[in-house]
Amino acid sequence: MERLNDFYEAVSDTGNYIRNLKDGGKKVLGYLCSYTPEEIILAAGIHPVRLFGTEGNITLADAHLQSYTCSLARGVLEGALSGELDYLDGMVFPHTCDTIQRLSDIWRLNTDFGFFADVVLPVKLNTESAREYMEDVLRRFRSELEEGMGVTITDGALKESIEKYNRIRGCLKTIYELRSADPGILPGADVHAIVKGSMIMDRDYLLERLPEVIEMLREKEPSTGAERKRIVLTGSICNHPDVYAIIEKSGGVVVWDDLCTGSRYFEGLTGTDGDPVKAIVNRYIERLICPAKHMSNTARGDSLVEMVRKNNVQGVIFLLLKFCDPHDFDYPYIKGFLDREDIPSMLLEIEDQLPSEGQLMTRFETFIHML
Amino acid sequence: MITAGIDIGSITAKAAVLEDGRILGSKVAFTGYNARQAGKNVFEDLLRELDMDASSIEKTVSTGYGRNSVKFADKAMTEIICHGAGAYYLNPEVRSIIDVGGQDSKVLTIDSDGRVKDFAMNDKCAAGTGRFLEVMARALESDLDDFGDLSLKSDKPSKISSICTVFAESEVISLISKGKSREDIIAGIHESVASRISSMARRVGVKEPVMMTGGVAKNIGVVRALEKALGVSIEVSEFAQVNGAVGAAIMAMRL
């Protein structure tokens, strides 16, 4: 859509976008996962940019990684080694999956971007000790950032940053809700560009731009055309805008997702009263979890079933990044929740490149025909 | 009502003509470079054999990877749906179908109405497909049509451990140079194919009765190896290779 060109440009040439931003004097920190406390980074006056891998061939990273490493980790390390990410002033590694933890070591030993921090988060999120521990970890990250980047992060700045993120996340959720109410008003590829762009672009710009997008959607005439089967995507990250168009071509439409580059990024608002670090911890503890974390034995399955019911969804597509262990190990168990509720699902394993369109169409068409 | 199904696979193109759900005839031809032309040719050849005119066909459904290149079809549907419909037509009791074609293999389950309930499909890799067997036949200088009978004569199948088709071929070459018998090597190749397909089948969950379809179902050695690997008996109809085209013609009746 022409009116979303700014998002598409930032997504398709992130290097160019970030370099322009840096010309204005900004420092930039890279991150990989939705457990990165972005609020603290922004409060330090630093621009957080999420990394999604590389579109080029992997030639340098494989010398450092095992063949069972996901394409995201391989792509990001490739970008670091090849110079594609030379705009970074540092990198933050929240410890979620094993691969990110190990990538952090390899990064520290083989690259030199200036700032580097591990944020060693707890795995179990449902205990009081986890809450206390996470609070300590975030406070430590805050002081490491202050020291490493030569800045001071006041509680006031942190609260202001939290409010900005609440507004950005609220806007993304509203866009999802409008799309779920009438999927015809916004193609899936556009939603993908908006969400991905929101992890790349200047956050102050987004605060003005996202409400405009919402306004534009509200002004649209209700869509007409053939009824499509309503689909939820679930998995780690989706870096493939083409997936949405192929699903749409096969007679379906994505109306919601449980993706790290989707609802897991924007679900849950952070409290604005009291200690801001405690408030950030609370959001992580209450938010929909990723399978690298533990909340309860049924939290992920129950929330997926609830997402399906709430959005009137006919089928679920698991979009799993090959070699993403946390998601792969959880798959049979999560599929069990759907099977028990008679919710049809299909599994698609993806890497940095999608399978051929013919293969994908065969799967999607069959699945959508089943619904 | 007379309907036709055209199934354009990666190696062969198939056509079937049905009258009120009765198979009047079917035909198999090589797909070659031009999938569009292959579909037209196999259909016209079949009509000629049946002494029929294209105008007598009321509805046509195309299927297979080349389904969208069959311009004269009324509708294109995936081969997974059509193999389900074809197997259900041949035996309505069937609940699982293992379809092994030229470059892909699929496992699907159907319900008591013949609707697809779940499916899995190989990707990125030709191990466990007809192409894998063709490569091995070349390395063994054997006719693929003899593979089934030869392998049944083996009492000590060789072990082929590589999944990659190219590496498996080198393994076969070293087995030949070690003087292993053709029968044992072929039986080993079939076990290797069966192990690939059976692990995919277990992901979907095999429900009996099981039917095997696709060109590779003509190879009795693979069928037996799969029965052993899955611990079930597998039925194969005389229409196994054209099952997708038959299913497409069945789907055409519902248009």
Please indicate the percent range of residues of chain A in DSSP E strands (runs of 2 or more).
Answer: 5-15%
Count of separate DSSP helical elements of chain B: 8
The total number of structural domains of chain B is 2
The largest sheet of chain A, given as strand count, sense and whether it forms a barrel, is: 4 strands, parallel
Q: What is the gyration radius of chain B calculated from CA atoms?
A: 18 Å
The beta-strand count of chain B equals 10
Would you give an account of this structure?
The complex is a heterodimer of chains A (371) and B (255). With 371 residues, chain A is of the alpha/beta class. In chain A, 51% of the residues lie in helices and 13% in strands. Chain A has helices at residues 5-12, 14-23, 38-43, 71-82, 98-110, 128-149, 155-181, 188-198, 203-218, 241-249, 263-266, 276-286, 299-310, 325-340, 357-370; strands at 27-31, 46-50, 90-94, 115-119, 229-235, 252-258, 315-321, 345-350. The radius of gyration of chain A is 20 Å and the shape is globular. The model of chain A has no long low-confidence stretch (mean pLDDT 94). Chain B has 2 domains: 1-91 and 242-255, Nucleotidyltransferase, domain 5, CATH 3.30.420.40; 93-236, ATPase, nucleotide binding domain (Nucleotidyltransferase, domain 5, 2-Layer Sandwich), CATH 3.30.420. Chain B has 8 helices and 10 strands. At the A-B interface, strand 8 and helix 15 of A face helix 2 and strand 8 of B.
Q: Which helices and strands occur, and which strands form pairs?
A:
The complex is a heterodimer of chains A (371) and B (255).
Chain A: H1 5-12, H2 14-23, E1 27-31, H3 38-43, E2 46-50, H4 71-82, E3 90-94, H5 98-110, E4 115-119, H6 128-149, H7 155-181, H8 188-198, H9 203-218, E5 229-235, H10 241-249, E6 252-258, H11 263-266, H12 276-286, H13 299-310, E7 315-321, H14 325-340, E8 345-350, H15 357-370
Helix pairs in contact in A: 1-2, 1-8, 4-5, 6-12, 7-8, 7-9, 8-10, 13-14
Chain B: E1 2-8, E2 12-19, E3 22-30, H1 35-50, E4 59-63, E5 75-76, H2 79-90, E6 96-100, E7 105-110, E8 116-121, H3 130-139, H4 147-152, H5 165-177, H6 182-204, E9 210-213, H7 220-230, E10 234-235, H8 243-253
Parallel strand pairs in B: 1-4, 4-5, 6-9, 9-10
Antiparallel strand pairs in B: 1-2, 2-3, 6-7, 7-8
Helix pairs in contact in B: 2-8, 3-5, 6-7
